Amino acid sequence: MTNSLITFAYYLLGWVLLSIVLSWVSAALYPLFSRQLNQCSPQRATNYTFFFSLLPPLAASLSILILASPELAFPLVASHCHNESCAPHTVHIEMSTLLSSSSLALGAAAILVLCISMLWQIRGNHRYERMLQQLSETDTLGYRWFDSQRPIARCIGLFKPQVYFSTGLLRVMTEEQQELVLAQNLVRAARHENLSYWLLKWASIAWPNALKHRIRRDFLQHSACACDISAFKMLADKTNKRDFVKTLESIYAKQYNPKQQPWRERLDIFQHAVDTTSQDKLGGIWTALSMTIKLTAYTTLLVIAAVYLGHPVLEVFSR
Prior knowledge:
By secondary structure, the protein is mostly helical. It is built from 11 helices and 4 strands.
């Protein structure tokens, strides 16, 4: 029983080490990857960015499963022997030195801190949601409203997201603006944007700061543009593209500094995406297929490299 627990803990340590190393590799390649997303629709760009952030922990998990199966691992591992035994084997764990014991303790502590931090955030979000539910009332249009002078519209919640409006927002916005903002946030709730962003943040925690902030910012930008497009489709029977863009402009003018106008790029992406969707469906399918093939190939290379290098590295740490 003790040996099994030690083996399990050591594989968890291997998962931590591989996840960190693969995160650094993915972070280094992300600028190249993000440039290719300019050819994709905002919806696909959001999905690809999310999947790219999860590749390191997913590839590390798959690599650990392969390393635990000698028949699968040894076609990818350099031939080597332990004493007179040269047959395929799992990671050889000796735990005979202070370094190996310290490594195991450090890995267990890192995983414990990670799990506690994630659970603590989930608990805090749940308490915040319960408080908002107690202070708000349900509207027939699908959102909850609460009394506040500040103009607030938020999609809140990880697993069961709900849309919240303040009375201050309802007073300062026209009916068209209210419908658009409601549609945007209902789309966010339906797509579980909060949960996806939360997972992306944790998956990229080992990335260098600059690239970490970049992938998070890019995800939110792609997701916001995708929500604009979905909201336009929801309101297609009530508005046209020209009026929709004008309404978006009026909303953004209230939210951002008029001198900076960072939302101009978002409007340009929206208009280009709507035009492209109606004109070049075949091109969009080909771009999506190309990106899927590239991501699959990259994932395969990550797993092969992690298995090839992970086996000897983990055995060194165990001595």
